Amino acid sequence: MIIENILAAFVELGTIKTFILMMVGVAGGLIAGAIPGFTIAMAVVLTLPFTFGMPAPQGLATMVSVLVGGLSGGLMAGILTGIPGTPSSVATTFDGFPMARRGEPGLALGIGVWSSFSGGIISAILLVTLAPQLARIGLEFNPWDYFMLVMFALTITASLAGENMVKGLIAGAMGLLIRTVGEDEAIGMARFNFGSDTLLQGFDFIAVLIGLFAFSQLLRDVRDPVAARKSLTDKGTIYVRIEHRRAVREVLKRWTIVVRSSLIGVFTGILPGAGGSIANILAYDQAKKASKHPEKFGTGIADGIIAPESSNNAVEGGALIMMMALGIPGDVTTAVMLGALLIHDVIPSPTFIAEEPLIAYSIFISFFLATFMMLGLQSFMLRVFVLVTRIRMYVLAGVILGFCGIGVFAINNIEFDIWTLVWFGILGFLMRHFGFPLAPMILGVVLGNIAELNLARAMAITTDISPFFTRPWSLFFFTIAIFSAVFPLFQGHRGKKKWTLFYLPVACFAVSVPLYMMGGVTRPILATIVLAYGAYTLWRRAQGGWQLEAVKRHDLVEE
Amino acid sequence: MDRLNRDAIIAIVLLVFCGVFFWATFDIRQPDYGVLMPSTWPRAILGILSFLSVIYLVQSLRQGADETELEDTACEPGIRGWVLYWRNPLWCFGLFFVYLATLPVLGMLIGGVSFVFVLLNVLGGWDRKNLVLHAAVALLAIGGMWSLFTFGLGVLLPPGMILGQF
After folding, report:
1. Which of A101, A402, A487, B90 is the most exposed place for a label (fewest CB within 10 A)?
2. Same structural domain, B66 and B100
3. How large is the ipTM?
4. Cβ contacts of B47-54, under 8 Å, gap ≥ 24
5. Cβ within 8 Å of B, A 376-405
6. Domain presence at residue B139
7. Residue B157, domain extent
8. How high is the mean pLDDT in each 10-residue block of chain A (559 residues)?
9. Model pTM score
């Protein structure tokens, strides 16, 4: 049945016109994703009117192409300018930009391109084969679970701040607070508008993001008058060549990061509201935690580019499945896709894939094809885009500041958004200067309304707060949030304090509890494996007389 | 000012900020319906933020003055030194504010081109060669972007009082 649907979709999409439209869509998406202030959502929205006259599979394929192109385009800006072109490539800048600045922009871009491609392909394969099963997981989530998921995401980003965990948490809480300005999500009451009608609508997320990241980064870049007059690579007009072969080798060497990050991306995409902006940071965090050299993250290493880029391309696959299976958009871009389906009189519901297999599989296949097109086209587009590295920093900064103004205005066509941009630019600049990480704040802004809405829904069902800690998924997210929060402390004390010997076994025991509670067959088996692993680790440590030797060996390796 | 004092001051500012916003939550109208009141969520966040700020304050007081920001040592003492050190970001902010304030008159095209042109000259120097280059860059970059949005994407950007007459 699946094969038949795939073949039917191939036939439907296999026209020259559709291919040309998809190519244009990918190219447009790449450009849109690369320009800070010109978001993927905006590109997809602007594509929407052009698809009115097309058959549904063709129109949706074009939009998917823009989406896939946009997801990958963000890495160009992120790596070359340090400003994420999209929220999905925020974490790419952490290592991509330092690598480019170190004089290896070609390698950084190559790694980004091939990681994006790998993530996209893994995601596409998973979607086509495992879509219905993956969608079932999201079906189990209730408001308590969503709320805990948001809390988990925030603690993870705060833990990214490492030694500045408190500053990270403060930034996250500030982000949540920023989102409360304006009318509240549940019943529309005015909050913190201080009598201003303009503030009633709240701050636009894109304007806040561009202000916090772009504006503040640009100002830091031009702070030093001498450095500002140098080019981005500090070497004037160096020749930049995308090092495909070396990049492929680097990516293949780290295939575990690719697979893990892609799985994180797909899983995050399935969760409503948790899109690429979370997945890329989550994957980066997990890669950092799994690394033998976490201290090298942020200095320009390949692992730090592979993880976010694999995940952010994989995330949209999951988001699309959720949208098609349940009618719940995984993020803003899939919300626009949902709008596109409605325009073509297709109402996404749990029976959508069964009732409209041609359209559903056309989306899957176009996602697959667009990923291949992205690889070919991005190589070409990058050759154009790397030219920006030859431009002097102050020229780039001045022009991008001008672009930001226009781009931010175009989101809602209101001047207030530009004011938002500049005020949050000042805030971001101060936060960077005082050592506050921006990622938790961004995440707080993105997830604030989701958290509040789900809290309101949970409270509407029952005022009892125990489900937050007794429901399996809720407890699962709560547990991993706690262990994620403690992780920086664990890392700092590993090899020095005895309690760190119990961290992993206790984490395994704790995680196995909600897995057992979920019931069924697979999850209790998984829980048993996790539990057994925890017990085995504990037994080995007991056999070793509770010595810290394993950690000491790790330290020696690092030395 | 060393890091100890600076971090402590930031923590105190955060606590004052929390206080002001907590006070503002009493201005939020409480409807007769709904279980989660509109002020509950902000108050919960402010409670957490205040708690974290107290921890931050305690941490900064315990930390001592051993981590002086190296970047700041390049800044000469006094207001003049501070302004000189931060002159480029200050120019950027200042010019952006002027750009925004004059937007209703100049519009996005003239205002944007002027903003980028002046900013590039301020940051890169006012010599004759640069003037031509910066003018070309400002015109092509902002003009191109404006054209793309206006003609390509159909976004109605503010024309301003000058272009609005045509």
Report:
1. B90
2. no
3. 0.90
4. B48/A169, B48/A173, B49/A170, B49/A173, B49/A174, B49/A177, B49/B14, B49/B18, B50/B15, B50/B18, B50/B22, B52/A166, B52/A169, B52/A170, B52/A173, B53/A170, B53/B11, B53/B14, B53/B15, B53/B18, B54/B11, B54/B15
5. 392, 394-395, 397-399, 401-403, 405
6. yes
7. 84-163
8. 80 88 87 65 64 78 87 78 74 87 84 89 79 63 81 71 77 90 82 85 79 76 80 50 84 89 84 67 86 83 90 81 62 65 64 74 86 82 64 81 81 84 90 83 76 86 88 90 82 82 92 91 92 93 77 36
9. 0.71
